[in-house]
Amino acid sequence: MEVSRFLFTTYRDKAIAKRALIRLLQNAHAGEKAAANAYFGHGHSLFVRDKTEKQEIYKIYLEELHHRERLAEFLIKLGSKPRVLREIGMWFIGFFIGVFSFIGTWLIPMYGAGRLESTNIGEYEVAARLAWLAGEDEIIEELLLFAEVEWDHELYFREKTLTHPLGKHIPLWVKPASKEQIRSSFFAFKKEHS
Ligand SMILES: [Fe+2]
Ligand SMILES: [Fe+2]
């Protein structure tokens, strides 16, 4: 994994790795709020009428809020806190996406969510590696777990997108590697650089 090599060469120094980890967790913390706002609107959308589908999106919404809660605790533990301006900006972005999802189509929010979730997987994989480089071992397990949860979210929205007649004809985002690979590649990274 090219990213892993880059991370190791750039963030060998514990203090530098910790600073990068804090910045990444701050971004993720704000991003989770944007996602939660978007899913709240999406779950209440006029186009999502199926009760099971509403419940599934609500479950994802709660999982994003849980991630956010834990990220805030990680930041405190690392001697930091969320960045106010980023929080406000992402809150509004999520709010507008949520409003659009409420009045928009069925397909576009499903597609957009899948694309977003695919980047979230990598974000937590990088965070787990930075935590290891920074010597913050106790948060690694949860960061890997978050990556796996985002993997489930991506799969959910990918499958939903593909159930739509148009979904089969639009180019999708790059399919993530297998879920198992999240942990196996992390442990390979650790072994290679220990
Ligand atoms: Fe999340
Ligand atoms: Fe997610």
What do these coordinates show?
This protein has a single domain, classed as Ferritin, core subunit, four-helix bundle (Ferritin). The chain contains seven helices and no strands. It has helices at 2-10, 14-43, 51-77, 84-103, 107-133, 140-163, 180-193.
Helical run tally: 7
Order of helices and strands: HHHHHHH
Strand content is: under 5%
Total DSSP E strands:
0
Distance between the termini: 16 Å
Number of domains: 1
Oligomer: single chain
- Fraction of residues in helix: over 70%
CATH class: Mainly Alpha
Question: Could you say what the CATH topology is called?
Answer: Ferritin
Extract low-pLDDT stretches.
Answer: none
Overall radius of gyration? 17 Å
Molecules bound to protein:
fe (ii) ion
CATH-level-4 superfamily name: Ferritin, core subunit, four-helix bundle
**CATH-level-2 architecture:** Up-down Bundle
| Protein structure class | mainly alpha
The biggest beta sheet reads: none
| Shape designation | globular
Mean pLDDT: 94
Quick structural summary:
With 194 residues, the chain is mainly alpha-helical. It has helices at residues 2-10, 14-43, 51-77, 84-103, 107-133, 140-163, 180-193.
Q: What's the layout of helices and strands?
A:
Blueprint: H1 2-10, H2 14-43, H3 51-77, H4 84-103, H5 107-133, H6 140-163, H7 180-193
Helix pairs in contact: 1-5, 2-3, 2-4, 2-5, 5-6, 5-7
Bound molecules: fe (ii) ion (FE2) (2 copies).
Keywords:
194 residues; mainly alpha; Ferritin; 7 helices; 78% helix; 0% strand; globular; binds fe (ii) ion
